[in-house]
Amino acid sequence: MTAQLHARHWIDGEWVDARDQAESINPATGETIGNYTEAGEPEAARAVAAALRAFRQTDWRVDRRLRAKVLNDMAGRFEVRAGHLVEILALENGKVGPEAEFEVSMVPSKLRFYAALALTDFGRAMEISPGRYTTTLREPAGVAGIIAPWNSPVVLFIRSLAPALAAGCTAIGKLPGLTAQTNTRMCEVFSEVTSLPKGVLNVFTESHSAGARALIDSPDVPVISLTGSSKTGRAIMAAGAKNMKRFGGELGGKTPILLFDDADLDKALPKVEKALTVFAGQFCMTGSRLLVHRPILDTVRKQLAARLEAVKVGPAADASSDMGPMINIANVRRVDGLVEAAIAAGAKVVVRGGPFKDGPLAKGAFYRPTLLEISDHSMPIAQDEVFGPVLVMQAFDTEKEAVALANNSQYGLAASIWSTDVDRPLRIARQIEAGTVWINNWAVVYDETEEGGYKQSGLGRLNGVSALDDFVEYRTIIHEVDLGMSRQ
Ligand code: NAD
């Protein structure tokens, strides 16, 4: 890996630099690894022009076989270039090896799943009354603006992009400055897909939101697909209202994990540890609220504390690290401020965790896992998304109380239930306000099954067949046929 990388935007099949320079930082060391230029309105305008031209003037929107071929070809290129992407995700995003590999490994099957769906449409035709036929076609909505976050930039961009392209949209990706180098490597893969027509896919990087705002304000971009925080989701919906913008949002979460007294703790506690520490808790589905049946509270407290204290925090470059850094020092400080405030407000410390004050890791954005015990679920630490490795634990006595605590949240992305009873987990799963519920597991996602949020966690679904809905319009054509016979 050379010392200085340079990331660029990829618009209309060309590599583009903008004006203002910014630096890319390795979160494990605080060192500069490269630079990039900040995109903004001019790059967004150029991308809109290219994507609109490709939508209107090429066969892309009507040629489903071409779209399937491009998605399959892309999957193949991602397989060939997986190592390059894993390497940059570890360096720039801080992911430890297995996490970076996991993120990249999810991409090819997603592209192939939507390649197949591009060939299999769900419109319908009817003879609705004698001699009168209706044909209802699902047509691409137009240019899709895709805004992705920094926490898993590769797979989260592809999760929106694959259904957008399958549906026949052309696309513009607005990716975060914090992952500028990763964004560029991903664009290198796109640039190697020779079947991809120029202008169908355009990507720019910015750390602010001037370019994103230009996409939202443009009447030529009818669809915005955001993966990001609920706050950004609300801001984008409000900004898009004047153009009646279609909005799909995969937003924040505060995933509860419910541990019942009949749970298999040997299976549950390692998963609870991972639910907190995967990507240093910077995951929309991070298990951040642990609800524990009172009879097992003491055992869980003791065993989980031991597990969290033993988590080896360190850089991705060290293969023995269990948990990598957070994305930057600013987020370490923000998370520690939330923990301090929670302790001051009465949360009991089980494992304090927190930043390293000295030693080699003090220069990086590391944060050791933290476990706090609470009895008031309205505390901000239990209500707000922390987006770091901080877990709050609270006891419950009855199933009803467990469900009420789990649902005591503005979020509804996911939940995890642990019990060896046959009926209880399904009974509870049906009562929890969340788009995904795992029984005796956590964070299992499939390309084939819908993923998304209730309440403030989102609008619409990605993955599964339903992801296409964000990117299609329905057109009904009613056609009269003279049947050559008299009608009533
Ligand atoms: P964020 O909302 O700050 O930013 C997301 C993207 O939106 C970025 O590209 C950002 O530049 C852009 N953005 C921010 N403000 C904007 C505005 N006013 N107008 C237009 N664009 C704007 O989120 P983040 O910090 O990058 O990511 C973390 C958040 O994403 C967490 O809340 C996490 O739960 C959520 N997330 C959700 C999922 C999911 O599948 N539900 C997956 C990953 C992350």
Walk me through what this model shows:
It contains 14 helices and 23 strands. With 488 residues, the chain is of the alpha/beta class. A 7-stranded mixed sheet has the order 15-16-17-14-13-19-20, sandwiched between helices. A hairpin with a 2-residue loop joins strand 2 and strand 3. Helix 2 (64-80) packs antiparallel against helix 4, helix 3 packs across helix 4 (97-119) and helix 9 packs across helix 10 (297-309). The longest helix has 23 residues, at 97-119. The chain is globular, with a radius of gyration of 24 Å. The chain starts with a strand and ends in an 8-residue tail after the last strand. The structure holds nicotinamide-adenine-dinucleotide. Nicotinamide-adenine-dinucleotide (NAD) binds at residues 147-151, 156, 174, 176, 209, 212-213, 227-229, 232, 235-236, 250-253, 284, 385, 387, 413, 453, 458.
